[in-house]
Amino acid sequence: MCFSAVELEPNDHLCRYYLGLQLAIIGHITEAQQHIRIGLDLHPEHSSTLHLLVLLLTAERQHKCALTVVENALEEYPDCLNLMYVKAYLELHERGGEKALVTAKQMLELWKSLYEGQTISDMPECDRKSDTRSVFQLYTSEMSDKDSSSLQLHNTAASRVEQALSEVASSMSSFSPRPGPQRAWMLQVEIWLLLAELYLALDQPADVQMCIQEATQIYPLSHHIMHMKGLYHMHKEEWPEAKLCFQNAVAINPQHVKSLQQLGLVYHYLGLQGLAETTLREAAKIEPKNHITWYNLGKVLEALKEYEKASNAMATALMEEKNNPILPFNSVPLCFE
Fold first, then answer.
1. 130 CB contacts (<8 Å, ≥6 apart)?
2. CA 204 to chain centre
3. Which residue from 112, 68, 110, 111 is spatially nearest to 86, judged by alpha carbons?
4. Which of 40, 65, 139, 297 could be cross-linked to 280 through a Cys-Cys bond (beta carbons 3.0 to 4.6 Å apart)?
5. Closest CA relative to residue 90, chosen from 114, 57, 47, 116
């Protein structure tokens, strides 16, 4: 369909953008970049196209060039949380955690500037003006699809989770959504989790805990928060605690591949190789092109002494990693102009 749109409107930057996005998702990186560059010739300051170009450059291992592009884009769009999020990950990759931490803290200050007035206002949410300066979309697109939509149905979701998650259920018993647009609060949750990830990379566990607690106070029923708790326990080599956190995350969202990947790895460290293989194969069914899943599966198969299968899994991981961007392509926000 995108090819047809480009044929009908070859000078429409949006047609080029969506075709480039679809090509990127299926792994045609070079062809995707060609259409994205044509789109930028047609509309040089289109933020979503610039965002996609940055990810395409990282898929080609041009991280320094990608960082330059995102920094230039932020000069034009200084309050774009999407671009700042990518910048933080690029800085972590290229310049270290301290630099990335500065950007993440700036994101928190920007959130206050953009949304704090809305969250303390008594005006009904439906009467508030939509702030379109930032369309910050999460790196997995999962928070907006799963968590924010479930906010309105948190009682129903909690009843499901209470059957398996005593920790979450106890938190939910006193939970009530914060005033103001729930989307704005979910953005803050993701910023806290980014900060937690960066502190984890800097080996500052106390700060990790503080960030997780801040996120939990906003919305405890989040598989992303459970996932981050699991990473925290993995960092401390607390395998039973990590296992429980990832199990909780998967109970909330069975499609969360990152939690399945880590749960499989924890099973591996606990010597539960059969469970590890089953869990990782489930992750591979959901996202067959995810190289981390195949790498973890290779380690498990090696432990099971299935060396040929392990070799094949590792080879698949290497092949898929070649076109792997620093953040998923579907994290780029949808746009209509």
1. none
2. 21
3. 68
4. 297
5. 57
**Residue 283: predicted pLDDT:** 97
Helix boundaries (H) for 95-131:
97-119
113 and 244 co-located in one domain: no
- Domain range spanning residue 80? 62-121+180-220
**Same domain, yes or no: 98 and 190:** yes
- CA nearest neighbour of 296 among 308, 306, 307, 283: 283
Q: What is the pLDDT of residues 67-123, one digit of tens each?
A: 999 999 999 999 999 999 999 999 999 999 999 999 999 999 999 998 887 776 545
Domain identity same for 109 and 258: no
**Cβ neighbours around 260 below 10 Å, total:** 27
Distance CA 185, CA 297 (A): 36
Q: Are residues 215 and 66 in the same domain?
A: yes
The pair of structure tokens assigned to 243 is 């296992």
From the list 25, 75, 83, 19, the residue with the least C-alpha distance to 50 is 83
Of the candidates 167, 265, 35, the residue with the CA atom closest to the CA atom of residue 257:
265
- Distance, in Å, from the CA atom of 183 to the CA atom of 186, rounded to the nearest integer, reads 5
Judgement on whether residues 55 and 186 belong to the same structural domain of the protein: no
Strand, coil or helix: what is 271? Answer: coil
> pTM (2 decimals)?
0.83
Position 298 confidence tier, pLDDT thresholds 50, 70, 90: very high
CATH number at residue 19: 1.25.40.10
CB 17 within 8 A of CB 36: yes
Confidence of residue 177 (pLDDT cuts 50, 70, 90): low
Tokens of 49: 């196209």
Structural domains counted in the chain: 3
